[in-house]
Amino acid sequence: MSRYLFTIAVMMVLLSSARATTKGLSQIVTPELQGPGDLSLSFQAQGERIGNPYELQAEMGLTNWAEFAVFRGFKPDEWIFGTEFGLLTKEPYLLSVGFVNWSPHLDIDPQPYIEAGYYTEHHKFIVGAIHAGYKNEAILGYAYDFNKTWRVQVDFQSGEENSSSIGFTCNITRDFQMNPALYVNNGPGHDLFGYVVFTYTFHLWNKTGGKELEKNEK
Question: What pLDDT, in 10s, does the model give residues 61-87?
Answer without folding.
Answer: 999 999 999 999 888 888 999 999 999
